[in-house]
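Severity: low
Component: inverse-folding endpoint
Summary: output formatting inconsistent between runs
Steps to reproduce: submit the following structure tokens with default settings.
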């Protein structure tokens, strides 16, 4: 019995030594990380520093920096600080930059299928539904396959659903398709083919170069994105006419990219924070957009004397017809384009039927509260 107790005592002492050693290692671990210092990443956006889009890039970086407690520090530079806006993908892929913030359609020249994450009617989906396809309908896997096909050494996170973009800024209202013929026009992605199909002479320029090109007469008209961006970039200084509603970029979102080697070297904990920060920033961006865009939309009219017009249905219908022709041609030329297109169509048919059958029209409620009868004033 005594021998047994000695054995137990010895076992307990051994266990306590192991436990103490483990506790010491646990306590020491943070000091090792601290000794190594934080991981720093240098990023660039594809936007001028004054654009709200660059603000979105800073918002995402701050979320990651805060959530990691400073163990990962992302610095975001504006377009042109290291490379031109359209050079972002190459710079991140080659490791010149550790990451970046932009849109997939800016890489249209490298692979036309990249524009399917933003250019076009989205088959009646809005941008949030397109993100649902990306996350749960096979888009994420197809995008990885697509980037691999062009040798892009990046990890991509599409996020941030954009509202439908204006048809464009013009010298006078556009009333019919023929009004587009011969116009020197700025757009990007598959929209290049759509506007060209309407007779425009298209020039793809980064956002920060559009207004100066219009001011110098290099462009007659242009589209960019939203009331806040368009206002701060100076569109009201060169045009007082903006046509609202369009299918050329009905369902676009932003893209966060990491250099794949840099990303893969991160601890799993940081990768998890990065992914969750994408979701958090996506929601926050969409809420901020509603607040800021609606304010600037009102001020464009009251302070900048901009006149807004609804794009005629005849033009919208023609956009869809031209897009179908372009998509058919690109599908014949590019198997990946066709594969992605068919995946989107299958998801959209199911998702949009659910939406159309389920979601009540908000136009009736708007007319009731803010229309001629203005019920809101009586409440």
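Observed output (run 2 of 3):
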């Amino acid at each position: 019995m005594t021998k047994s107790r000695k054995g137990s005592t010895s076992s307990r002492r051994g266990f306590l030594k192991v436990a103490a050693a483990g506790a010491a290692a646990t306590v020491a671990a943070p000091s090792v990380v601290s000794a190594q210092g934080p991981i720093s990443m240098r990023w660039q956006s594809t936007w001028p520093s004054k654009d709200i889009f660059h603000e979105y890039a800073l918002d995402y970086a701050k979320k990651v920096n805060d959530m990691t407690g400073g163990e990962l520090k992302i610095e975001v530079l504006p377009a042109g600080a290291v490379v031109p806006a359209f050079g972002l993908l190459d710079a991140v892929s080659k490791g010149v930059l550790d990451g970046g913030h932009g849109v997939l359609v800016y890489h249209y020249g490298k692979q036309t299928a990249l524009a399917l994450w933003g250019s076009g009617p989205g088959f009646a989906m809005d941008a949030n539904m397109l993100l649902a396809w990306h996350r749960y309908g096979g888009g994420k896997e197809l995008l990885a396959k697509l980037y691999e096909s062009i040798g892009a050494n990046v990890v991509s996170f599409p996020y941030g659903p954009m509202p439908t973009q204006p048809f464009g800024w013009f010298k006078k209202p556009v009333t019919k398709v023929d009004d587009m013929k011969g116009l020197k026009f700025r757009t990007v992605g598959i929209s290049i083919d759509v506007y060209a199909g309407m007779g425009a002479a298209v020039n793809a320029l980064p956002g920060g170069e559009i207004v100066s090109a219009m001011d110098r007469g290099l462009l007659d008209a242009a589209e960019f994105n939203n009331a806040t961006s368009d206002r701060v970039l100076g569109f009201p200084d060169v045009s007082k006419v903006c046509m609202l509603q369009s299918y050329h970029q009905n369902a676009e979102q932003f893209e966060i990219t990491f250099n794949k080697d840099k990303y893969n070297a991160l601890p799993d904990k940081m990768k998890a924070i990065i992914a969750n920060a994408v979701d958090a920033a996506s929601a926050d961006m969409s809420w901020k957009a509603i607040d800021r865009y609606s304010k600037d939309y009102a001020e464009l009219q009251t302070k900048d004397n901009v006149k807004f017009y609804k794009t005629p249905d005849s033009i919208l219908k023609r956009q869809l017809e031209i897009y179908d022709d372009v998509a058919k041609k690109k599908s014949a030329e590019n198997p990946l384009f066709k594969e992605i297109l068919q995946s989107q169509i299958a998801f959209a048919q199911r998702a949009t039927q659910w939406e159309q059958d389920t979601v009540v029209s908000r136009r009736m409620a708007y007319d009731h509260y803010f229309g001629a009868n203005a019920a809101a004033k009586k409440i």
